[in-house]
Amino acid sequence: MDLKLHQCFIAVDDHDKALTFYRDVLGLEVRNDVSFEGMRWVTVGSPLQPDVEIVLEPPAANPDASPADKEAMARLLAKGMLRGVIFTTADCDALFRRVQEHDADVVQEPMDQPYGVRDCAFRDPAGNLLRFMERSDG
Fold it and tell me: In a 10 Å sphere around its CB, with 0-12 CB exposed, 13-18 middle and 19+ buried, how is residue 105 labelled?
């Protein structure tokens, strides 16, 4: 089977704050930023992976979501209970310093893990947990 990941989704409550973080702090490029069916469709991605995009979307962006579902998703996002993504980097410590300089919410400073990676973690402006790992094999 020939399968590749094309898009993943991260819930955000403010597209402008999210763009500042993902574009200006992490260095991802903006692939799309358009209005669509009353919402804003924003995608970012690494220049090293032109075929993979992260969609930054409001919680419960599904137009069929009930008001109660949308409220529940917004509460979970505010608590930091929605999952983010794990990035790889060639230098975890340098990435940590760069992100920390921009006053990001530090969850874990760089540390060596027993499963062979060095990693750190932050929360994005919406509260999503993002991990950054450096593989010990390169």
Answer: middle
